[in-house]
Write a structure and sequence with these properties.
Elements (H helix, E strand, L loop, with lengths): L5 H9 L22 E4 L2 E7 L39 E4 L16 E10 L5 E7 L5 E6 L2 E7 L5 E4 L7 E10 L24 E7 L2 E10 L3 E9 L7 E5 L4 E5 L6 E7 L13 E7 L2 E7 L4 E4 L2 E4 L2 E2 L2 E2 L2 E2 L14 H14 L3 E4 L6 H10 L2 E5 L11 H18 L5 E8 L5 H17 L4 E7 L1 E4 L2 E3 L11 E4 L16 E2 L7 E5 L18 H15 L5 E4 L7 E2 L12 E2 L12 H14 L3
Parallel strand pairs: 21-32, 22-23, 23-24, 24-25, 25-26, 26-29, 28-30, 29-31, 31-32
Antiparallel strand pairs: 1-10, 2-3, 2-4, 4-9, 5-8, 5-10, 6-7, 6-9, 11-12, 12-15, 13-14, 13-16, 16-17, 18-19, 19-20, 27-28, 33-34
Helix pairs in contact: 2-3, 4-5, 6-7
Length: about 600
């Protein structure tokens, strides 16, 4: 392939001149992006795979011995091997692993580029919004480096007012999914490391002064409380909150920082799984009307019960990975995927789901809210994080904060989870206490939990000896008795010693089976073995006092490079109640029967 001139490659790649300064950092996160004026940048992009980071060749000086930048944050990305316009195409949003066979196992850097047309308006501001990019994204617009985002499952945005050109614009994103010890999750996790721009990208247009974020919550005593925050240079504007169905319209006065809190007497019909009522809410200024659909409910605990709207509720749940059904795997990303996965959960009798092990896409959260499914949402503080590293803590905090900011008005989110299966240590406890404190500071209206682990203190007696439990509202843990711990018959010999002053939720249980593999119930990997295991677990779980919910592992088989048993796993975790091809295993119907009995009060 003919080698093109370095400078020409830079101009072609970035659409800009030779100087590429850092001109922006991440802007405060926009909320309710779907309710705003947007130009979708989804679709077909160009891409170049860059395993040796050759895009960081420095054309301004003689190359070093290696020919590449020595800096960790170089200023001039350039791909010098060939013309970007001759490169292959890739679909956004989607992972790259399932779009090109040669990228199936790829972990490294890929450069993305798209061009889009816009006519910037003088009275408007503009933001580039990314639903998620896994794991690191470095973003350039028209030759200007906007910034770097880390964290593969949370949204981020940059203000690009003044950087847009009338007509065609060039957007370049350098994406890396390289696993790192100091990352969150760290370099060891049990799901597929899907790389790429995995969620939607949009150019968001706002007025000069606009509603950036807000909170609306129902409190006992028949009142709606909340706050709103404007973004702009002047906050001397008329601001009105309107809830038409409740016949509420109130004028608000922002302070010098654009912030205003409020309290409204109201008696809305409360959201619940059997009646997932949502109300249209409008934020009105002379420049915009930002609309949302918001549900109202309360979620609290009393002793060993979870109370929804003041009444005890059992969380009939299931764990779900963000794995696409019917597309040969890959990252789930759209409303159709959400409908399929959540539809299966509803069919099983679920009123609750654990979105594991990271923040899922916004479609999942919103569709679950409309379908009457409560949610447990968590960040990927998973297994062995670098607990002593303050930058890792800050990374985890940033991911938690972004998840809360995006979903704080989704009433179906009832539990924020700070971790999964993390080994005990003083450093780990300090880390997770910081995470719990952050959640309580940013959103005191919801419950806090984590997926802890059980221990067998003496033969047949199980407990959870985790000091983190003291700081949680819901005492949750994973257990695999009958799969990793003995055989199914052990479930009938187990006693549980658990706290009586907190609700207990079993965040994982179950075992594997290959759909269509049949045999005796004593034969592992058969549907019969998995079915017997579930029946034994249900008998055991029914005996736990204070049991307030279960989320078996897992709804659907999902890809994991750790799972390589030939002819059985073949790169999939087979613990699904449903196969990766959408076929229901025997165990699905066992859980369905139990949940139906509970729903009927049997």
């Amino acid at each position: 392939m003919k080698r093109i001139a370095i400078v020409a490659a830079i101009v072609m790649l970035l659409g800009g001149g030779a100087n590429i300064p850092v001109v922006a950092e991440e802007a405060p996160l926009l909320t309710n992006v779907s309710g705003r004026t947007c130009i979708s940048l989804d679709g077909t992009w160009r891409y170049i795979v860059d395993p040796f980071e050759s895009g960081y060749y420095d054309y301004r000086r003689e190359p070093s011995a290696t020919g590449f930048f020595d800096d960790e944050e170089p200023h001039n990305p350039a791909l010098i091997e060939y013309d970007f316009d001759a490169s292959p195409t890739i679909v956004v949003p989607r992972d790259w692993n399932t779009q090109a066979p040669e990228l199936y196992y790829y972990e490294g850097s890929v450069w993305y580029r798209t061009r889009f047309a816009v006519e910037p308006q003088e009275e408007s501001r503009y933001f580039l919004y990314f639903g998620a990019v896994n794991y690191e994204a470095i973003v350039y617009l028209n030759g200007e480096r906007l910034g770097r985002h880390i964290g593969g499952f949370t949204p981020f945005n940059y203000e690009v007012t003044g950087l847009l050109r009338p007509g065609e614009n060039s957007l370049v994103v350098k994406v890396s999914n390289q696993r790192l010890k100091e990352a969150v999750p760290t370099n060891n996790f049990d799901w597929w490391n899907y790389g790429g721009i995995t969620r939607s990208v949009a150019l968001v247009e706002t007025p000069k002064t606009f509603v950036r974020e807000y909170s609306l919550q129902f409190e006992e005593g028949k009142k709606i409380v909340g706050w709103v925050r404007l973004d702009g240079s002047s906050y001397d504007v008329d601001l009105t909150l309107e809830i038409p169905e409740l016949k509420k319209r109130i004028a608000l006065t922002p302070d010098e920082q654009g912030y205003c809190s409020f309290e409204i007497s109201a008696s809305p019909r409360l959201w619940e799984p059997e009646n997932p009522k949502l109300y249209r809410v409008n934020w009105i200024t002379p420049y915009e009307c930002l609309s949302d659909e918001v549900g109202f409910r309360t979620i609290t605990t009393s002793g060993n019960q979870i109370l929804l709207n003041g009444r005890p509720i059992f969380c009939r749940g299931v764990s779900i990975h963000e794995e696409a059904p019917f597309r040969n795997g890959g990252r789930a990303y759209g409303v159709d995927d959400a409908h399929t996965l959540l539809g299966w959960a509803k069919e099983m009798g679920c009123n609750f789901a654990r979105l594991a092990h990271y923040p899922h896409n916004e479609f999942m959260v919103k569709e679950a809210e409309r379908m009457g499914i409560m949610l447990w949402c968590e960040v990927p503080v998973y297994w062995t994080i670098d607990w002593d590293n303050p930058e890792v803590l800050e990374n985890a905090r940033a991911q938690m904060s972004a998840m809360i900011t995006r979903d704080r008005n989704r009433c179906n989110v009832i539990i924020w989870s700070v971790a999964n299966e993390t080994p005990l240590s003083d450093a780990r406890l300090d880390f997770l206490k910081e995470m719990v404190s952050l959640v309580r500071e940013q959103d005191p209206t919801r419950l806090v939990s984590a997926a802890m682990e059980k221990v067998e203190v003496k033969p047949g007696v199980m407990t959870v000896s985790d000091p983190l439990g003291e700081y949680l509202d819901v005492f949750s843990f994973n257990q695999y008795i009958g799969w990793y711990d003995g055989l199914p018959e052990k479930c009938d010999r187990v006693e549980w010693a658990l706290p009586s002053d907190k609700p207990v939720l079993i965040s994982e249980f179950g075992g594997g089976a290959l759909y269509g593999k049949h045999g005796d119930k004593s034969e592992r990997w058969t549907e019969e073995f998995q079915a017997d295991l579930y029946e034994a677990n249900i008998r055991m779980l029914k005996k736990i006092k204070g049991l307030s919910g279960t989320t078996p592992w897992i709804l659907m088989d999902f890809r994991s490079p750790k799972r390589n048993l030939p002819g059985i796993q073949d790169g999939y975790n087979r613990k699904g109640l449903i196969s990766n091809e959408g076929k229901k295993k025997m165990s699905f119907y066992i859980m369905q029967k139990w949940y139906q009995e509970m729903a009927e009060g049997k």
